[in-house]
Amino acid sequence: MQFSENWLRSLVNTDLDSQALSHALTMAGLEVEEMQPVAAVFSKVVVAKILLVEKHPDADRLQVCKVDVGLAEPLQIVCGASNARAGLIAPCAMVGAELPGISIKEAKVRGVESFGMMCSSKELGISAEATGLLELDSNAVVGQSIREHLDLDDNLLTLKLTPNRSDCLSITGIARDVAAITGAETRFEAIIAVPAAVKSTKNVVVTEQAVCPRYCGRLISGVNAKANTPDWMIKRIERSGLRSISALVDVTNYVLLELGQPMHAFDAAKLNGDITVRFASANESLSLLNDQTVELKTDDLVIADANGAAALAGIMGGKPTSVDDATTEIFLESAFFTPSVIAGKARRLGLSTDSSYRFERGVDFGNTKNALEYATQLILQICGGQAGEVTEVVGSLPVRQPVKLRMARLVSVLGIPLEGAKVAQLLTQLGFVFTEVNSVFTVVPPSYRFDISIEEDLIEEIARLHGYDHIPATAPVANLLMLPAPEARLHQNKLRDSLVAVGYQEVVNYSFVDESWERDLLGNDTPIKLQNPIASNLSVMRTSLWGGLLDTLTYNLNRKHDRAFLFEIGAVYFKQANGFVETTRVSGLAYGSTKPEQWATDSTEVDFFEVKAHVDRLVGAKVSYEKAEHIALHPGQTAQILLDGKVIGWLGKLHPKWQQQYSLMKATYLFELDLEAISSHQIPAYQEVSKLLPIRRDLAVVLDENIVVGEVFNAIKKADIPLITEVALFDLYQGQGVAENKKSLALSVLMHDTQKTLTDSDADTTITNLLQLLQNQFAATLRN
């Protein structure tokens, strides 16, 4: 929120200087992000009138001017501006003036003496560019300081407001808060209703009173749309960051800035029939004031006439019914729309308007009609015309529920002693209506304070007005107990350490994702949609962490990174019949070479088994893998991860279709695990280490090529054959010497006994038992 300090001071009488005022606002929660002067520092520049212009005798582009600066005799000034002419009133820098980068002295210009300089806005530091002298109004007083005439001793303040302080999105709201902070008196002028000069009205029908509980409008006929906007209004509008457009539009913008009430003026001649406030129809479109045509959705609130939508309620008016220089009759609108019906709509359409910014945060519903009356007064003063009767449709306005503030609770939270009289004084400065009984204040929040709804809100108000810098910093005193940390419970930091140890980097992404990710990567056509997304591409809640990881990968690849090992531990969200469920997942992505590029080893691309080893590192040998299919993963390189027969996650290579869509030049591997399922682990137990030597036997078995090796190892583990401590695969062979549709597995078998030295007979018996197991369960034979 940007505004003129002088405009603010015209509404609230405070003795604080600019720096002190800025500090007071910041310490009260209205952070002043920037304060800059309207114009650069300069002196001895006055309003001047050119009396006579003659051509310079020795220069075609220069003129010799006789200039009245309010002294006894006019000055002679050589000027090269193209718009210099007799009768022009413009700024003149006197001899001795100090302008930004220029010192004005007596000089001879091509042999002609010059006693000053006529100035453009650029030379005064008011604007970056200028094409000629700054032309002033004919009523400007010759000899008056230009700083005084143009009100240049002013500062532009920019507030960085939090979303809850919508009441300070107007100069009146800020003045109200300054009065509360400093105890100064406000100078608000009473708004007097404009009596109807004509009986003409426009019928208004509000079909959606739940989201538009108050709508006011009136016809104003005989207006002069070509009237000039007064300089004082243009100055205040432009110093608030808006530009002057036309008198009618400027008035609505001025009321928005002063009172915080967005308004709109329709050209009444372009409206057909009654005004209707309704939701948009299916397949309805609207051409907006910015020449953008938008396709409306059925939850978009519109202001319509018999021809269809005429404006997007609370956001922007329509082009077909807009005012122009030919307008002679307007329908002036002032309404209150609930924040929920406006929130997110402008962002979805790629718009950002001053109206939507205010409506989606909350506008004062008690000021709707007053704003209409004030805008009417200004239009009649500037553009003339005759006002019709006000048409007002009122439904169920928001009820401001009383909020109780207990003195004991206030003192407990703030930690400082406060008297009831002091609290009453601060509440009075805020303009709150309240009663006090037995040290309990019952406060009815005003209609402009949407943020006051619970006791803590009132405590915050008291704290900021009392002054945060007046609340001493006291170290807390508390008894701290160490929370239990079961050894069998795997902490998230252990998972992080495990993944970081093999080269992964942790990322933290939004829980909001693009709807297309859910649909394409997860086949989720009904995701949980946000009512007010922060961006159009973050509109639904995620059910997997993969979308964010792929987005992070793409971001890094676009910045010339050629490998990425990423992981995230975060929540995912699911919709169920009886509500919503939140669970936590750990997910990883591997792309590129297994190790960073170096001279000592060859670069090897990461593969399925490398990532599988990383998953094993997370969960140990207690899980198993089953071939499966997933919409996001490659049909031939996808596995479900199971624990005790229950699916707890997925592992696989990104599907070629999505690899192409994300423009990934190399294979990408993904995994995801349910965190709760892997959080319990077996407590390590002592096991005696034998002093005796183990025996190793290698054998090769032939079995059907469709048998998964993991199933073989699971069967061996389950059988728990005595003496076998480890079985490992060290070779896989298919080809000459092995029948078609068969494969040969070379296994190393390690046997050990902690009590005695094993003999060849012991080893032979164990190997025989192992081969018998493989033959019975997998029809395996010993390879010759």
Automatic annotation (TrEMBL):
Reaction(s) catalysed by this chain's protein: tRNA(Phe) + L-phenylalanine + ATP = L-phenylalanyl-tRNA(Phe) + AMP + diphosphate + H(+)
InterPro entries in the cross-refs: aa-tRNA-synth_II/BPL/LPL (IPR045864), B3/B4_tRNA-bd (IPR005146), DNA-bd_dom_put_sf (IPR009061), Fdx_antiC-bd (IPR005121), Fdx_antiC-bd_sf (IPR036690), NA-bd_OB-fold (IPR012340), Phe-tRNA-ligase_IIc_bsu (IPR045060), Phe-tRNA-ligase_IIc_bsu_bact (IPR004532)
Name this protein carries in UniProt: Phenylalanine--tRNA ligase beta subunit
GO molecular function: ATP binding; magnesium ion binding; phenylalanine-tRNA ligase activity; tRNA binding
Domain TRNA-binding residues, every copy: 39-147
Subunit structure of this chain's protein: Tetramer of two alpha and two beta subunits.
Domain B5: 398-473
Native organism: Methylotenera versatilis (strain 301)
Keyword Nucleus: no
Domain FDX-ACB: residue ranges: 690-783
Chain sites annotated for binding Mg(2+): 451, 457, 460-461
Similarity comment: Belongs to the phenylalanyl-tRNA synthetase beta subunit family. Type 1 subfamily.
Co-factor: note: Binds 2 magnesium ions per tetramer.
Principal place of residence: cytoplasm
Entry's Gene Ontology BP terms: phenylalanyl-tRNA aminoacylation
Catalytic activity, EC: 6.1.1.20
